[in-house]
Design brief:
By secondary structure, the chain is mainly alpha-helical. The protein has helices spanning 2-14, 38-61, 68-83, 94-111, 122-129, 134-151, 157-163, 180-185; strands spanning 20-22, 25-27. A hairpin with a 2-residue loop joins strand 1 and strand 2. The radius of gyration is 23 Å and the shape is globular.
Length: 187
């Protein structure tokens, strides 16, 4: 039995990778894709935004001669754009929002020189920095994108997919999985 398993393992290790063609071009075989899941995408976005914030932090946050509103504007332009790239189509759970919100608040506290042991509530930090929470920013971006899709002509693929429904299928037990358009119409 162990010999058979070893032979199968050897065959898997020595097998040739599949060849996928797009027209005349062979596509490369990779072990990992960029957008396989929302968890990986959010972790990647936070890592990229964290790197950008580290670069910004050295030059901007430590300089006390720069006004807070200028620092926040630079944060919006450089960090939030990389953090929320592609967020218009994300369907997020509370754990995802919490993770994004924690990063957002950590950055804002650093920009405003608020130490963690001073125990400022998040609402006060947002008010002082004159910026919205991540959830509000995401909802605004999703509504803006949905408005673009709704105004598209009826033959455009994003609009066709947005208004399409499955023809066949059965409901699964328990709570139903939310679709993107369900989240847009939720109270």
């Amino acid at each position: 039995m162990t010999e058979v398993l070893l032979q199968l393992a050897d065959r898997r290790l020595t097998s040739t990778p599949p060849v996928v063609m797009a027209g005349e071009t062979a596509l490369p075989v990779v072990q990992r894709f960029c957008y396989l899941g929302i968890d990986e995408d959010i972790s990647s976005r936070i890592a990229k935004a964290s790197y950008s914030f580290g670069m910004l932090d050295r030059r901007l946050c430590d300089d006390h001669s720069i006004r807070l509103d200028t620092k926040v504007a630079a944060y919006k332009a450089a960090i939030l754009t990389s953090l929320l790239f592609g967020s218009k189509t994300w369907v997020l759970y509370r754990r995802h929002l919490r993770k994004l919100e924690q990063f957002h608040m950590r950055c804002l506290r650093r920009i405003a020189h608020m130490r963690w042991h001073d125990k400022w509530p998040n609402t006060k930090v947002l008010q002082i920095c004159n910026i919205s929470s991540i959830e509000a920013l995401l909802i605004a971006a999703q509504f803006r994108w949905t408005g673009h899709v709704i105004r598209m002509s009826n033959d455009r693929l994003p609009k066709v997919i947005f208004y399409s429904e499955l023809k066949d299928g059965a409901r699964s037990r328990g709570g139903q999985r939310k679709m993107y358009k369900d989240l847009l119409t939720a109270p």
